[in-house]
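Reopening this one. Same input as before:
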Amino acid sequence: MTASILFLIIVLIIIANQLFDFTFSFLNRSYRNKPIPKVLEGIYDDAEYTKQQSYEADNSRFSLWSSLVSFVGILLILFFDGFAYLDNLLRDYLENEIYISLLFFGILMFLSSLISLPFSLYSTFVIEEKYGFNRTTVKTFFFDLIKGAFLSVIIGGALLYIIILLYQTFGSYFWLLTWGIVTAFMLFLNMFYSQLIVPLFNKQTPLEEGSLRSAIEAFSRKAGFQLKNIFVIDGSKRSSKANAYFAGLGSKKRIVLYDTLIEELEEEEIVAVLAHEVGHYKHKHTLKGMITSVIQTGLILYLFSLVIDQPLLNQALGSNHTTFHFGLIVFSFLFEPFSMVLGILSNMFSRKNEYEADAFAKSYGLGDALISGLKRLSKHSLSNLTPHPAFVFVHYSHPSLYQRIVHLIKL
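Same output, byte for byte:
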C-alpha cells in the first residue's frame, strides 16, 4: 500500500461516515410528522406539540450545519497538509518529541474549540433560550469553558505525556502499561468524579430532611440498598431540563438528583426514577460497563501498537517524520468504522440495561409512577415522541419513550 492509497482510504472513511450520519438524520426528520402512538397521546396539547416540532426542527438544522462545518474543515486540513504544516512549524522551535506532540494536540484542541464556540453560543443562547430551557449566563458559560479547558490541559496533558513517554521507552509494548494506567484513571474518576470534578461546576447539597427523603430512604430499606448519600445538584443554574444519576462504587456510591427534577415531578415519581437508578446498581450495570470499557480500551491500544511505528501513517498526512501524534491521528481515522460498530453495540447493551432498570422499579410497585414521571420529563424537555426506529437503533443509548412505556405495560 502507498501513502496515496492510505490517504484516499482516510478520505473515503470520512465521507462515508458523513453520509451515514446524514442518512439516519434524514430518516429521523422524515418521521417528524408521524401520528403519535396511542400510549403517548395526551402528553402534549396542540400548542405544545407545535412547539416541540419546531424545537426538533431547529435542533436538526443546527446539527446538520455544525456537522457539515466539521466535515469540510477536516477535509480542508487533509487536502492542504494542515497537520504536516503544524508539525513542521513546531519543529522550528522545539526538538523534544513529547513537547512537540503535546503542543500539537493542544493547538488542535484550541482551534477546534474556537471553531465550535459560535455553535455552542448559538445552541445555548439562541435555540435553548428560544424554547425556555436556558438559564446559563454569559459569565457562567465562559467560566465553564475556561474550567473545562483547564481540566483538559492538566489531566489530558498529563495522561498524554505519560503515554508518549511509555511509547518512547518501551516501543510497541507500551500499550500494556498504558492500558493499566488508563484503567486505574477510569476507576479513580468513576469513584471520585462527583467529589472532585462536579464541584468545580455545580453545587451539591445533601437532600434535606422531609417527606421526600423519608420516602427515598423507605424505598432503599425495602430494596435492600444501603444509601447514605443523597445529593441535590443545582442543575437549574444552567438549564431547566431535569435529570438524575447514580455515581461511584462501593462506599463512594451516591444518588444525585437535579433540583429541576424535584421541581418537576411528584414525590412518588421521583422515588420511581430513583428506583430505576438503584436498579442499575442492583443489576451491576455500572460494574459491567466499566469492565467492558476496560476490555475495549485494551483492544484499541493493542491495535494501535501494531501500526504506530509504520512510516506510511505519517506519509499519508504529508510528513516524513515518524511521530506519535501522526500515528494517533491516522489510527483514529482508520478505526472510525469499528468505533461506529462498537458504538451501536454499546447502545444496544445500554438500552437493555434501561429495560432491566425499569423492570426493577416496577417490581416494587412503581411502574405507573415511572411511566407518569417519564411522560412529565419528556413533555418538559420537548422530547421527540416519534423518532425513526433506525435512528433509535443507531444513536439512542436509552429506548425511546414509546418503547419504555410499552415494555413497562407488558411486564
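So the earlier flakiness isn't reproducible anymore. For the record, The mean pLDDT is 91.
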